[in-house]
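We modelled the chain as a single entity of 261 amino acids. Its sequence is:
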Amino acid sequence: MAWDLKEPECISQARLLVASPEFVYDQIKYYGDNSSYLSGKEQLEKLLLQRDDKLINLALAEFAVKKETIQSLFDRSKTNDDAGDTYHLGLRVACLSNRHFGFFNWPNFDLDALMSKGLTEESYALLTNPSINDKVLEALYKKADCFAQVGEGEWMHMIVASAENERLNQDESNDSGPDMGLYSIHNAIFSFLENAPVTEPSVYATAHLLCALEPEHTVWPEAIEHVIERWRHAEVKDYKGDIKEGWSTHLALTEELACLD
């Protein structure tokens, strides 16, 4: 049943406080898909949290629009988590997948602890979330802040994961001005091309990343020859020991990568 989100909030509260968890889950999903941070029902989210039902909490984690709701559930999932606790892992992943993060309501996810584990279900959920804070993606490509501690192999896995994020091609420019966040992300990607170690794993990661980018959103620096040259000289071989062929052409993968640069 579709939810008329304009109904008086007291009716919504009464209805969902007595409804089955399965019904509430579907309603909260609809609410999350059709509400914004400003139009969210803060009191309703608080009351549903008080039901402390596992299925309802999972719906709130993934679809609630208020920072306080997501933060409460994320903190609760860490406090109550035991090794191998599938439910609390799912609850954290739902929080990290929530698409209602914004500049003014970014929750505290303790990114140092989260990223110290490398690419996990949790870090994957955040790195592929289009509403991720732009500064986190910048830090990823520059291997700074919470990513400075990550080993090279895990870093490359994270780069590949980030290539799935719609934000890389999501221009939010409007009448107020250009999307400077997207511009900064693409500047950071170019910094990655300039500074990442040129190894076989990084060639694959870089190819994944560049193939995901739409040219109209990328940064065009004044000079790119130095970047093209450094990736062209990488050596990547297939399982037979021959030069690895590109994914879209008969050129060597490294030559194809230079064309993408």
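As a brief sanity check on the tokenised model: The two ends are 49 Å apart (CA to CA). The chain has two domains: 1-100, 110-261.
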